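Lecture notes, unit on binding sites. The following record was shown on slide 14. It pairs a sequence with heme C.
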Amino acid sequence: MKKYILYLLLPSFVLTLFAVNMGFSHSNSAPVIDCTSCHQGKLKTDIVSISGLPKAYEPGMTYKLTIKISSDLEAMGESRGGFALQATGGKIVITNKKDTQYIEKFLTHTLEGSKSRSWSFSWQAPKTGDEVTLTVMAIASNGDYSAVGDLIGAQSYAIKALKK
Ligand code: HEC
């Protein structure tokens, strides 16, 4: 399942190479959801988690969620981490404008938010009752202002609606 997600994300690789060539730099947000296309750190899927998610959601209900990175990796600079999150349904609601922002199709950290390793937001479940997948990719950074030596985590959650 997790491998499958990475394959889905592969097309972004080409775009990413382009961005790298242009000297893209971004402690202030993630350019695409697939961090591994630039960050060559170790992929340790279980360092990232989302808390506050229900096992099954109540259609239309809003849930307060928190993305958290657990890692011993120490940061020598200001940047401690970052993330990108995508939901296939419902609505992502920003609750902390200082640390998070919505860019194109995903939620990501701001420059201020890269000093943290946990980020909160809300998610309003769809009214239709469709199954939704939330995918998050996050980085525990070593704060050296480079894409090297960081740890990468990825996690995805499939949530169905409560049966009435
Ligand atoms: C286009 C290539 C590229 C992609 C894709 C990418 N990054 Fe980066 N990232 C970089 C580069 C280059 C730097 C170093 C320059 C900088 O700090 O802006 C960096 C730095 C960072 C830093 C600061 C690191 C430090 O040690 O100071 C964080 C945090 C970060 N990225 C998070 C992410 C996350 C989270 C993702 C995926 C959701 C991601 N990045 C995807 C290229 C990328």
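Take-home: The two ends are 28 Å apart (CA to CA).
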